[in-house]
Design goal:
Elements: E1 4-8, H1 12-24, E2 28-32, H2 35-44, E3 49-53, E4 55-56, E5 59-60, H3 61-70, E6 76-81, H4 86-94, E7 99-102, H5 107-135, E8 139-140, E9 143-144, H6 148-160, E10 167-170, H7 177-186, E11 195-199, H8 205-213, E12 214-215, E13 227-228, H9 230-233, E14 238-242, H10 249-261, E15 263-265, E16 272-274, E17 278-283, H11 287-293, H12 298-304, E18 307-310, H13 321-336, E19 342-343, H14 345-353, H15 359-373, E20 378-379, H16 386-389, H17 408-426, H18 431-437, H19 442-451, H20 460-465
Parallel strand pairs: 1-2, 1-3, 3-6, 6-7, 10-17, 10-18, 11-14, 14-17, 19-20
Antiparallel strand pairs: 4-5, 8-9, 12-13, 15-16
Helix pairs in contact: 2-3, 5-13, 13-15, 17-18, 18-19
Amino acid sequence: MNARILVVDDEQSMLEFLEVLLREEGYETATARSVAEGRERWAEGDFHLVLCDLIMPDGSGLELLEEIRSQESSASVIMMTAYTSTKSAIEAMKLGAYDYLSKPFDVDEIKLTIQKAIEKTALVDENVYLRRELEGKYKFSNIIGRSRRMQEIFALVERVARTSSTILLEGESGTGKELIARAIHYAGPRAKHRFLSVNCGALPEALLESELFGHKRGAFTGAIAEKKGLFQAAHRGTLLLDEVGEMTPPMQVKLLRALQEKKIRQVGSNVEQPVDARIIAATNRDLRQLTQSGEFREDLYYRINVIPIRVPPLRQRREDVPLLVDFFVQKYSREMDIEPPRVSVEALKLLESYLWPGNVRELENVIERALALTTSDTLTSEDIPTHLLHQGASTLPTIDLPEEGLDLEVHLDDMRRELMGQALDRSSGVQTQAAELVGMSFRSFRYYAKKAGLTKDQRPEEVIES
């Protein structure tokens, strides 16, 4: 929709000049010849910008400016006058005018000023929209996303939260796997009990065993008292095993037995104790590949991979970046006790175009840093770290041939499925548009999409696995 502009001026010749100029620029216009008529026109339409003369027969344009600002409208107001006065200009800016122009106008100057004012209005409207979306359907617990993949994950979380099935969360570091695990816990019947987590790669084997299963007093040097393990502490709740792919083979055997038998044995004890903790495993490694290389037990893999959820990296859901930016701006502005700044169009485009190797965690750090260092009420590209400004061909991923070789056809099928999925995300699921993005005919795209499980009639878990 074209921007709508209200022009308020008591000079008929000026109204006619501005009306012709604005319509040639593609704007919709409405006019008024007095403050009173300006109020009526303003009440009748939804305007993006108001051009208002300062001095009119029935009052001051500042009165209309003050009324518009009191309604908390996002519309910008530009004041105009043939009587240049520093005092009136300052007063207009204090009341919330976007700019103050003196007659006669330089045509190029007024065109540029109007364009910038409308861009500012559009940015404010976008921020309001994003905030409302965050409060509604694009926010699930603390997970944010409006992309097709994230919406499918939201739907799947709601379904699996009611069960006690073991879940495997796969995805790169920083994609929000723990947030999804917490969402599953708090959306289900176990929410009244504890959610506990452990990083399996951060502890040596002996300490991890004690952490998971507990130990008896005197079981080893330093065990001066009996300790409950996380399996017991998470009884009737949920236990997240983060970085499960880092477990040593002996620990994998002990974990497999605990999952199969639903019983644990404390270190230094011969007595088995029943446990009822829902297990959610998470990993940033390819467990299927690790089972093929013998680094991860195949039987344990199938035991934890009952319901797989693959969390996409941020570069594959770029339409979520504006939502995340707004969320982190609000979050850290509250923590820093500052007024949330606007984010310029250029800065937002830059953030959307970056590949985000550190995913959501990296984006969060960038926004926190920008807020801590900025002295303006608008975040611009100057507030963005330099490495985001100079990304080039070096950011493209390299492809190395594995030592053991690979099946090229399977690899190409995987790449095609991944790129088709991204095209569907970017086109909001419209297959004709997605086909154009990857240079395929619609028939070929539809065939391969159905074959790969990317069509809407597939189950959510099938889509996410792909």
